[in-house]
Design goal:
Layout: H1 2-18, H2 24-38, H3 43-58, H4 62-77, H5 80-92, H6 97-109, H7 114-132, H8 136-153, H9 158-166, H10 171-194, H11 221-228, H12 230-244, H13 252-257, H14 260-276, H15 283-317, H16 319-328, H17 334-349, H18 352-363, H19 367-370, H20 374-384, H21 394-403, H22 407-435
Helix pairs in contact: 1-2, 2-3, 2-15, 3-15, 4-14, 4-15, 5-6, 5-11, 6-7, 6-8, 7-8, 8-10, 8-20, 8-22, 9-18, 9-20, 10-12, 10-20, 10-22, 11-14, 12-14, 15-18, 17-18, 17-20, 18-20, 20-22
Keywords: Cell membrane, Membrane, Transmembrane, Transmembrane helix, Transport
Organism: Neptunicella marina
Subcellular location: Cell membrane
Length: about 425
């Protein structure tokens, strides 16, 4: 009966979001309350349980996500994103344009949230398409594959960042493993796959042809790259240094500087002086941008809070132990299980973030029973959450409308690309699991 209660709650969550079009935060709360009742929690304990779940999950994440959004906004408004794109175009040349666009999406996508990165970088694709007369879809898919990879696999993006504490993973190691998985995944789903899309003749809307900043108004190339990648460099460095030292105890200073919250704060403060001021952005202009960035991620924070409430119900009720007992008897790799669960929810709901968080809310409470590397579990769920994007995903419609495609063309290009990211990502994760 306990497992059936969980199934009923998840089905309700799916119906509320996909059928009634209810906001995911409200859908999570309603599903969590129903799960509490079905699982026999005392009525007077339901509200405190939901509050505890929201606070426990949002507590360590809110600063990282909010400051990360501010950092991405500054990278965009300063012109650093445009400079990175221009520099990579010049480095790779026209022969390797798809590689250049892929690396542009990857580097710029690390500090920028997916929807922001999409809107900022797609005009670059259209500009190149008009200049070179190459098909826009052929040029755009490599960039978007890289954006998807960063969105699903790499902190400080919301879903992987939220999954790390739930599974007791390490933010730095998850990032390092994510980078290992990301490169071959985006190469196959991006430049390789796009070679088969040259026959899709789409004319992007002229509205989206960009008005670029003049070159002299952009920050320097080295400055743009180093500042944009600073969060990644700091997280990777602080994760790797303890393994290079013979000391069994890490330095308190290293532990402080390597904390994701401190990493993002240091990166933002430095970017204000390396990107903001040199680009002519006043303090008031930067602060206005930060306010806009907070508004952009407010919805994401609410969704994460709702997922935390549902997870807490599963923990307090003890149903996670029952589910763990069932799954432990199945002859299926736990990483494949996490990927499959996230895939099913993604197909039903459309949102990659909601799919990842919902799968984690079911699996995280029994992580100790699964006997699997928690960092790889974060990545496996991330890969599953990117699978099979279709008509219930906002990204599907953004791609269709921006590139001016019909439904068949969108399925052949966008949906196939997202599915390749999920499948190749899973293969790389399972391979990495054999090695480590």
């Amino acid at each position: 009966m306990a497992v059936l209660s969980v199934v009923i709650s998840i089905v309700l969550l799916i119906l509320l979001i996909s059928w009634l079009k209810l906001h995911p935060f409200l859908a999570f709360l309603i599903s969590a309350i129903l799960a509490s009742v079905l699982l026999g929690l005392p009525l007077d304990s339901i509200a405190p349980t939901l509050q505890a779940g929201m606070g426990n999950l949002l507590g360590p994440l809110s600063v990282i996500i909010c400051v990360g959004a501010m950092f991405g906004k500054l990278v965009c408004e300063s012109g650093a994103a445009q400079q990175i794109g221009n520099s990579l175009m010049a480095l790779f040349g026209q022969k390797y344009l798809t590689l250049a666009l892929m690396f542009t999406g990857f580097i710029v996508g690390i500090p920028l949230f997916y929807n922001v990165g999409f809107v900022i970088l797609i005009p670059l694709v259209f500009s190149i398409a008009y200049q070179t007369k190459l098909p826009a879809v052929y040029l755009g898919i490599p960039l978007l594959a890289a954006l998807s990879v960063t969105h699903g696999f790499l902190p400080p993006h919301p879903s992987p960042t939220a999954l790390v504490p739930q599974f007791g993973a390490d933010m730095g190691l998850t990032l390092v493993y994510g980078l290992i998985v990301a490169l071959p995944t985006m190469l196959i789903a991006g430049p390789f796959f796009s070679r088969f899309l040259k026959d899709i003749n789409a004319t992007p809307l002229k509205t989206f042809v960009p008005e670029d900043k003049p070159q002299e108004a952009l920050p320097g190339t080295l400055n743009s790259f180093l500042t944009s990648l600073l969060p990644v460099l700091l997280l990777a460095l602080t994760a790797g240094l303890p393994h290079l030292s013979d000391s069994e105890t890490s330095s308190p200073l290293l532990g402080f500087v390597g904390h994701p919250m401190v990493v993002m704060l240091l990166s933002l403060l430095l970017a204000m002086f390396t990107l903001g001021k040199p680009s002519g952005l006043s303090m008031s202009k930067m602060l206005d941008g930060f306010s806009d960035a907070i508004k952009d991620v407010a919805v994401i924070l609410l969704i994460i809070a709702g997922a935390g409430a549902l997870k807490q119900v599963f923990v307090v009720s003890g149903v996670s132990q029952d589910i763990g007992t069932i799954f432990s008897s199945l002859a299926i790799n736990p990483l494949l299980l996490g990927w499959l669960m996230a895939t099913i929810i993604r197909i039903c709901l459309g949102s990659a973030t909601v799919a990842g968080l919902t799968a984690a809310s079911i699996l995280a409470p029994m992580a100790a029973q699964l006997d699997v590397d928690p960092n790889l579990m974060v990545l496996a769920i991330g890969a599953g959450s990117l699978m099979c994007s279709h008509v219930n995903d906002s990204g599907f419609w953004m791609f269709k409308e921006y590139f001016n495609l019909d439904l068949k063309q969108t399925f052949m290009s966008w949906t196939m690309m997202e599915t390749l990211v999920g499948v190749v990502g899973l293969f790389m994760i399972l391979t990495l699991n054999l090695i480590i």
